[in-house]
Amino acid sequence: MKRTNCVRSVNAVLACASCPGDDAGGSLRSAGVVTPSIVPQATRLTTMRLLALLHGLGQTPQSWQDQVTELPPGFRAVAPWLRGMRPARTEEFSVEGAADDVLALLNQYGVEQMSIVGVSLGAMVALDAAIRAPEAVSHLVLASGQINPPRSVMRMQRLAFSLIPAKRLAAMGVEKRRFLRALDAAAQIDYRGRLGAVTAATLVLVGDQDRANRPAAEALAAGITGARLEVIPGAGQQVNTDNPAAFNKAVYDFLASAPPRRSSASMGA
């Protein structure tokens, strides 16, 4: 059974989430999804929880289709392009810049906190936001994430991806040049020693077939206070699309049951 039966066209919803200027606010709102480009600046969420869905490297906002169709009541979700990843745009990708865009959603919708779910590159962006603005993130889901990617692995990945024809990536909605630059930026991150800054209730997910990210998943769960690690069966790195049913259950059960942790700032108030 679907968690919500009010979705008219999920494809249209996520297409609009990635296409500023398209007027499909009705479909977005009916599906419980809002985007900065569609919803007026004055819009405020007063009775619903804001949920940011951050796509991975090689994915697009459309990759969240299976999560949007199962969105629980009480949530409004936004699935944006990460800065520098959208084709035909001039800005370059950086983890910090993308995290700043995510945190800007708080002012956009007039809320003090949000929940963030990130996969792969999106998990790195989500982690950066939770480290630099712990008071802004109530719940954090890190899927297929990294703390300090092994340089040898990143070099091999870059070489492999550089051999993929640009047309093949374009068919997936991904621009090869941006893809490789984002891969280079991700290779430079290092959150070792900074995980203690995270105060959000945290769930770490990794696919049982994702050997490359398993050590990082274990390190994230060990380094973030109160974090829990869950392995998703039948899934690789793109865990949200490899096994959406198991992914959705893990994420939405966590968001429903895990109380938000208080930041050190709020505890000192």
From TrEMBL:
Q: Which species? A: Propioniciclava flava
Gene Ontology cellular-component terms for this entry are: membrane
Superkingdom is Bacteria
InterPro entries registered for this protein in UniProt:
AB_hydrolase_1 (IPR000073), AB_hydrolase_fold (IPR029058), AB_hydrolase_sf (IPR050266)
Residues annotated as domain AB hydrolase-1? 53-249
Q: What is this protein called?
A: Alpha/beta hydrolase
Q: Which SUPFAM superfamilies match?
A: alpha/beta-Hydrolases
Give the residues annotated as coiled coil: none
Gene Ontology terms, MF aspect = hydrolase activity
